[in-house]
Amino acid sequence: MHPARPQPASCPAWYALAVGGVLTLLLAGCATTTSPTGRTQVVGAVSQEQLQQMGIQAFDQAKQQGRISGNAAQTRYVRCVVDSLTRQLPAGQASGWDVALFIDPSPNAFALPGGKIGVNDGIFKVAKNQDQLATVIAHEIGHVIAHHHDERITRQVGAQTGLGLLGALVGSQYGQGAASATQQFGGAAVQGVFLLPNNRTQESEADVVGQRLMAEAGYDPHQAVDLWQHMMEEGGGQPPEWLSTHPSPGTRISELERRADGLAPTYRQAQAAGRTPKCG
């Protein structure tokens, strides 16, 4: 899931030339890795530190452009679910996640590198209980821990389409003019790359990772099926427009059902271990 895509900013001529000069260096630093589902990924066009800073910048821009909810109860509810999920992540990833609840009727959410999660209050129309809200949030966290943002940026670099993003990395090397242009165009480019729709492969993978994460946190993985059925109902029998890059609803629900049965022991073990979230 993802927020509305921002309009791209145009770049001056020198900017594209500067980017062309560093493409080879950036791509030379790329590497192949294996995703949580065993898929080969090409990542590493930027460092993890840079990736996290870009996530923080995109999150700050989303908060500046959106309306933050003043509903303290709903914010605590979302925070509780986020905390219960992130506690199951590996050391170094489990703490420090920042949460924002936006006033937006679209039943949507997103997560970014750097530990940032945004949730639209429209999600409560389809997430009827804490397990269904956990489905949404765990799916978005799945994009982060499966390195989908890293993969997307690396792909953008290879296609030479992330000009503003790349310029932000090297602008300081080209004098004050470059630095000024980086400040003007870099932010829009970073947000654009980070908040573009995921492709279907990534969406399916986030389903797999997220459904396992919610089961490990003590949420019923079968509730993921109900959540996506509510998504369909919200769209009048068709998924909302922003789900166009996701797997077909029938396929998605069938896969969620199949995996939920397989994750039932994980869920029972989590409950037996005392992981019984009581968020709402």
TrEMBL record:
Transmembrane segments: 12-31
Organism domain of life: Bacteria
Domain Peptidase M48 stretches: 73-259
Segments of this protein annotated with the region Disordered: 260-280
Keyword terms: Hydrolase, Membrane, Metal-binding, Metalloprotease, Protease, Transmembrane, Transmembrane helix, Zinc
GO cellular component, one term: membrane
GO MF entries: metal ion binding; metalloendopeptidase activity
UniProt-listed PANTHER family: M48 FAMILY METALLOPEPTIDASE (PTHR22726:SF24), METALLOENDOPEPTIDASE OMA1 (PTHR22726)
Protein name: M48 family metallopeptidase
Organism field: Marilutibacter penaei
